């Protein structure tokens, strides 16, 4: 997005204002998925579609399919683990992004 | 104003709209429950809403210029004038309707989102003014109990015994020594239609309180205090945000209640309270407390619960057991 896009210019006969405006867009802080150290993995066999993870996710990265099965948006998931902590049937597992000893 | 307002009332979470108005990619810390609260809030308010956001964590991290995470009109105001800004918007809407610029039947809601610093300390005068003028604004306070955004300095909302960078824990100072300000009580003392405290660990209750707060706007303002567990400032594992929020209510530290037109009601009665130690031991900001100090906090909570029971007229929050 360019600077011109994100400003509102109000012109009239005598005055000239530039009003700074932020426009809504995904990822105002970039792809926040790069902050993650552990990734949530949904076990679709255990999932009972209770949607607790979708409800409590602070990032809106637990997405719902039409049949209410959930999946994770790894572009923006910060890997906090709230979804795994609130899951009543432990269907979400937190898997380390890098295994110990690697890297 | 129209008589029948369409306000979302939910019985199960399948009634919630799928549409998100607070979208991903914001800069809040991983595990920050403010994200949960704002998502729920925008789901209830819907698109015809103007959000006034006082300076604070949510403001700083969700609207990095030139982007915004809010799909609804959003205004940044300073710490001390969020209430006044909201009043100004209400006046502008009224004037635009009178002049015929805006459709007269259009129902535009004005919601203030402010942190505890911008409400309890710095913005208290503008909040009080707004409540006094009875402007139709819903004020949502997300209470993370210190100035987390600037580096965990104490605020009027910091509870007794908590470590912050300005109330350090050592041999002489044992963390914060003042008690938490009862901001919901202060708001209720303005005799506004609706005052409530809510907790994101009880989402149905919280969402219905937001809905009720919007419903009463044709009579006057509403004030809702929401507890927001802060992973950075409270020093706990990011995954435990909701668990700790739930313990705050289960131990009686943060009872959730509503005062609807003067009628006091505890919306989550607890028969057997958990000891406060369970809540305190999960957080690094209380790690320095000795058993004696924890007992002292337990006594303070017991007293608070007694007051709540007196207000309710019966035992709604039971003894520790």
Structural class of chain A: mainly beta
Globally, the shape of chain B reads globular
Mean pLDDT of chain A: 83
The amount of beta strand of chain B, in percent, is 5-15%
Largest interface: A-B, 41 and 42 residues
Q: Total number of β-strand segments of chain A?
A: 7
Q: In the CATH hierarchy, what is the class of one domain in chain A? A: Alpha Beta
Give the helix level of chain A as a range of percent.
Answer: under 10%
Mean pLDDT of chain B: 92
What value does the Rg of chain B take, in angstroms?
19 Å
Individual helix count of chain B: 10
Main β-sheet of chain A: number of strands, strand sense, barrel status? Answer: 2 strands, antiparallel
Describe, in plain words, how this protein is organized in 3D.
The complex is a heterodimer of chains A (103) and B (321). Helix content of chain A is 10%, strand content 27%. Chain A is mainly beta. Chain A has a domain of 59 residues: Alpha-Beta Plaits. In chain A, a hairpin with a 4-residue loop joins strand 1 and strand 2. The two termini of chain A are 35 Å apart. The mean pLDDT of chain A is 83. By secondary structure, chain B is of the alpha/beta class. Chain B is built from 10 helices and 9 strands. Chain B has an 8-stranded mixed beta sheet, sandwiched between helices. In chain B, strand 8 and strand 9 form a beta hairpin. Chains A and B meet through strand 3 and helix 2 of A and helix 1, strand 2 and helix 8 of B. Strand 3 of chain A pairs parallel with strand 2 of chain B, so a sheet runs across the interface.
Condensed summary:
By secondary structure, chain A is mainly β. Chain A contains two helices and seven strands. Chain A is elongated and about 65 Å long.
Write the layout of secondary structure elements.
The complex is a heterodimer of chains A (103) and B (321).
Chain A: E1 7-11, E2 16-20, E3 23-24, E4 38-42, H1 52-56, E5 62-64, E6 70-72, H2 82-86, E7 92-96
Chain B: H1 33-45, E1 49-54, H2 57-62, E2 67-68, E3 74-77, H3 82-99, E4 109-115, H4 117-121, H5 124-133, E5 138-143, H6 183-188, E6 194-198, H7 203-215, E7 222-227, H8 241-250, E8 257-260, E9 263-266, H9 276-280, H10 291-312
Helix pairs in contact in B: 1-7, 3-5
């Amino acid at each position: 997005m360019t600077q011109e896009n994100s400003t509102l210019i109000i012109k009239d006969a005598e005055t000239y204002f530039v009003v700074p405006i932020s426009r809504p867009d995904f990822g105002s802080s970039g792809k926040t998925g790069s902050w993650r150290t552990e990734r949530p993995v949904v076990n679709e066999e255990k999932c009972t579609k209770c949607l607790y993870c979708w409800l409590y996710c602070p990032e809106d990265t637990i997405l719902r399919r039409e049949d209410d099965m959930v999946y994770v948006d790894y572009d923006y998931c910060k890997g906090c683990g709230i979804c795994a902590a609130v899951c009543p049937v432990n269907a979400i597992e937190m898997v380390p992004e890098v295994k110990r000893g690697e890297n | 104003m129209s008589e029948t307002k369409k306000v979302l009332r939910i019985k199960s979470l399948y009634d919630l709209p799928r549409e998100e108005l607070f979208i991903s990619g914001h800069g809040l810390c991983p595990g920050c429950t403010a994200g949960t609260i704002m998502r729920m809030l925008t789901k209830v308010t819907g698109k015809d809403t103007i959000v006034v956001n006082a300076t604070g964590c949510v403001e700083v991290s969700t609207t990095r210029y030139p982007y915004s995470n809010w799909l609804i009109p959003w205004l940044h105001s300073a710490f001390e004038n969020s209430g006044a800004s909201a009043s100004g918007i209400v006046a502008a809407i009224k004037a635009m309707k009178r002049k015929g610029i805006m459709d007269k039947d259009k129902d535009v809601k004005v919601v203030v989102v402010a942190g505890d610093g911008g409400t309890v300390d710095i913005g208290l005068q503008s909040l009080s003014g707004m409540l006094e003028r009875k402007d139709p604004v819903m004020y949502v306070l997300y209470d993370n109990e210190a100035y987390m955004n600037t580096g965990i300095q104490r605020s009027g909302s910091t509870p007794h015994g908590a470590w912050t960078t300005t109330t350090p824990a050592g041999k002489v100072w044992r963390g914060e020594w003042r008690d938490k300000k009862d901001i919901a009580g202060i708001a209720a003392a303005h005799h506004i239609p609706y005052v409530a405290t809510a907790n994101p660990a009880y989402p149905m209750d919280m969402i219905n309180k937001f809905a009720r707060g919007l419903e009463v706007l044709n009579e006057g303002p509403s004030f809702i205090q929401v507890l927001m567990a802060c992973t950075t400032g409270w020093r706990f594992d990011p995954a435990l945000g909701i668990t700790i929020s739930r313990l705050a209510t289960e131990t009686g530290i943060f009872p959730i209640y509503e005062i609807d037109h003067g009628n006091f009601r505890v919306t989550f009665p607890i028969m057997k309270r958990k000891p406060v130690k369970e809540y305190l031991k999960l957080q690094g900001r209380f790690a320095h407390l000795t058993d004696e100090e924890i007992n002292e906090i337990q006594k303070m909570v017991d007293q608070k619960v007694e007051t709540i029971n007196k207000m309710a007229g019966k035992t709604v929050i039971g003894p520790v057991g």
